[in-house]
Amino acid sequence: TSGSECDSEVKKPIPIRPPSSRVSPLRNKEYHRSLSCEPTPKPIIRQRSHSLPSTTQKKKQCRNVGVRFVDSLGLDLEDIRLFKSGEDPFVPHHVTFRLLMGAELADGRHLEISLPYMKPFFSQQPGDQPGFLHRLREQKVCLERVLCFELGVIGITQVINLDFEKDVTARYSFTEWKSCTETKASWVSTITKTWEGGGGELSCDTFRFHLPVPPFLQPGAELEFAIQYKVCGAEYWDNNDGENYKLVCHNYKLTVPKECEDSMVHFI
């Protein structure tokens, strides 16, 4: 065969297209997910909470609701109150105080407030009176002195040290003993008192108590109190020889500085 015939018999090469560099969007997303640290998102599964009642349970709960009237409990269905036409309404003292104070401020006057303080009926402190130690040995408990200030009354009491366990209480009243209140005294110290003339020594305990004074107590009101001492199963009293210790209420005027008036209005 000739060379021309051999060339015609050789097949021409078929051109092959190189693979495309494009990647499908799905595979591209999977590739980026594999490189990221975020977890693969999962579909949200909605599930009913176990604590929520079902619809049938709701119906049962609604059926159990009942209505009861107060007359079934022995009470009255209505409350009727009658007011006389001539009766003046009661206005609390602190409300009246604010109204008067506001009127003074509106007129441009300096604000004055009245503060109560208690003053003892007795002129001399019991502990300074002659024969105090004798009374203390006889009664086992005696009021020594009274200190008065705006927020109340402080009492100092002496008791004979008969035992370690003891209880001292002050019983007081602002209503002439129509009602009364008690406050417990707190221990302060143990001291030894010497009789005048070398007649011996007494081991005593000092107690302290506080009697609060109402801020709107009217002038002339009286505070009465007595002291109770319990020790070794026995009970002792100091009631001022049956007269009780008495203090009377007085008021004094206090002028408030101009720069403090606004704060006083909010304080009251």
TrEMBL record:
What PROSITE patterns does UniProt report for this protein, alphabetically?
A: CBM21
User: Where is the CBM21 domain positioned along the sequence?
Assistant: 133-248
In the record, biological process GO terms are: regulation of glycogen biosynthetic process
Pfam families (alphabetical): CBM_21
Give me the Gene Ontology terms describing cellular component. protein phosphatase type 1 complex
Q: What domain of life is recorded for the organism? A: Eukaryota
Identify the stretch(es) annotated as Disordered: 1-58
The GO molecular function terms of this record are: glycogen binding; protein phosphatase 1 binding
Q: What is this protein called?
A: Protein phosphatase 1, regulatory subunit 3Da
Q: Species name for this entry?
A: Seriola lalandi dorsalis
